[in-house]
Structure formats: structure tokens, C-alpha cells
Structure prediction request, 405 residues.
Amino acid sequence: MEKIKMTTPLVEMDGDEMTRILWGMIKEKLILPFVDLKTEYYDLGLLHRNETRDQVTVDAANAAKRLGVAVKCATITPNRQRMEEYPQLTEMWKSPNGTIRAILDGTAFRAPIVLPCIRPAVKNWEAPITIARHAYGDMYKAVDLETEEPGTAVLTFRGESGAEQTLNVQTVRGGAVWQGQHNTEASIRDFARSCFRYALTQKQDLWFSTKDTISKVYDGAFKRIFEEEYEKTYRAEFEKLGITYFYTLIDDAVARVIRSKGGFIWALKNYDGDVMSDMVAAAFGSLAMMTSVLVSPDGTMEFEASHGTVTRHYYRYLQGEKTSTNPMATIFAWSGALKRRGELDALPELVRFGQTLEDASLETLEAGIMTKDLLPLVEAGFEARGVDSEEFMDAIAARLAEKLA
Prediction:
């Protein structure tokens, strides 16, 4: 069959370790045989980020803004242990996701890929829970400081007018660690609007939670802005559709989520969304079955998997072992990006291909062919066999070719 043509490239951000290996397999087996793929390629592997002093991450994010669609592989954010593993590193580089999100802003919507043969660990969950994670600021753009002597830390804001506001953070008698974080009203407001719009398109209730009883000013601003946007712009549309906006403290929200039946959108601040999306993914089955799309106010979309680089499997792969690493979320990142590119460029064949790739992947799982991480999760009586990553993708490729033919 003739390959599907693309007119505009999408931004391809390569990554690290086992997910980088899967990235190459997905392109080779599931995309290149069927699509005349056009990408603007950026290597966000840790060593190349180090070589460019992380400029490649900035360049990739700006390219995403320019071209409107990006797909990203999982990447390493180095800590002290990683500095020892990679002695070539000249600096403990910041999270590439944090850098990209700071440039693109917007909201990351994360939703589990669900299968009839896998019941959620929370037995009363009947429908997927989508996490709407604010993608800017907080601890991901924070500055850190470690001190060793007694003293006092202050927080000072100097306005352009010359006016200053100063708060005493704390006086300590010995060593201490400090962190200063921020967010902007514009970004919080864009976050709120994105969440309300997404809830309307999905026709689902929207929950939002912070800890404004403790963080009265910081979290209080989030709560206030969400309420303002809802009352001013979205209440009438929500009521017309029969859906609701609901705010509660995050500790109460966690309890309510566990007792719920699912089927709603849960909006969270940056760090809260990071943690809770992993919890929701694991409870629905696997971290490798959680999709993520960053939606910017200007319409730019960046698609990625929610999980990390699967380091343990990577070291086994380097020893020549075939691993059974689940590529589903990364496959869905590619399919989502191709569908979005097709929508923007009025290429219905490309949109259909992306949807067919997702269908072929799900049907392969429903046929009982899956990576070994899913085997312990399937319902009793469902016949399934565990295969390695390459066998799994070969099975998807065969089904995909049959469906496209």
C-alpha cells in the first residue's frame, strides 16, 4: 500500500534508556511502514542535553510552539545517583519536562488506557479518571538553597515601581534547606480555563482540590481564580450540560476519589498532579497504561507517556536480554500526535491511521497477547500469554497491516 503522506512535520523529542529503545521499535514496526513520516528531530537524551548545556530542550520546546504538535519520549532527570551513573555530566540538569512545560504552559491531561479484562484495584471504579495537571511553576520552577549555620531567611519582592514587600521565612539555629517557588496569575487562569473547556468537551464533572486551609495565599489564589472563571464564564454551560464543578481540600478529595465510581476530571496543581496521576494509573492497572497530553493556551499539544525510562529493563537489555517492557503509553503518544497533526493539516487519512494504531494495540491486548506486567492484573478466566516487547509490537504490526488493508 502507498504510504500516508504528511505535509507538516511534528516535533520528535527522543529520550533515554529503555523507552528510547522502544521509541525506535515503534517507529520501525508501527509507523514507518505505513506513514511517510516527517519530524523535526531533537535528541533529549541525557548526555546530549549535557553536551548542549540543555539548550536542546529549549530548542525543542520552541519548535513545538512553532509547529503546534510534539511527541516526547521519557527522559532522565538526574539526581545524585544519576550523577554517579553518568560521570560525564557537568551539572545536575533540571527536569526537561519542567523546562518544556514552562515554555509551553498549559495543562497536562492524563488518562488511563482501560481494558475490559483488567479490573481497577479500586473495585468501585467503573470509568476512567482523568488527571488535569497544571504544567507550570511550583516546585518544578523552584530555587533551592542549603545552609550550614544559624541565621534568618527572608522573602523579598521588588516591584518595577521600586516598592518592596518582605516576609521573614524562618530563623534557624543550625543547618537548613530552603525552597522558593512561584506561579503566575496568568498561568493559573489559563490552567482553569483549560480544565473547564476540557470538561465541557468531555461532558464530565470537574473536581479541583488544593490545601488552601494551610497555604492560604498561594493555594488560596488557585481556588479564587477557578471560582472566578467558573462563575464568570462557564457556570451556564456546565448547568446546560448537567455537569458540575466541585472544589474541596485535597485530603478530602483523595478520600472521595477512592469512594467514587470514576468518570470525572480531577484538576490538580503541578506536584499534586504528578503524584496522583501515578496513583490513578497504578490503580487502573499499570503506569505504562497512562496517556498524557500537554495542551497549551495557543493550542500547541505535546504528547508523551506518563512513566519514566524503565532503567531496570534497560540494564537487562544491555546484557543481551529480551525484556517485556510495556510500550502502550508511548504508542498512544505517537498515535495522539499523528492524529492531531492530521486534524491541523486536514489529513483525514493520517487521523484514521492514528486511531487504527490505537485500535490495533487494544485489540492485541484483548486477544490475550500482552507484556508480562499486565498478566497478574487480568481477570480470572481470561486467557493471556506474556511476550517480550518486540513480539508484542510484531503482533500489533500484523493486526495494523490487516486493518489498514
Observations:
- The first helix runs from residue 17 to 31.
- The longest strand covers residues 138-147.
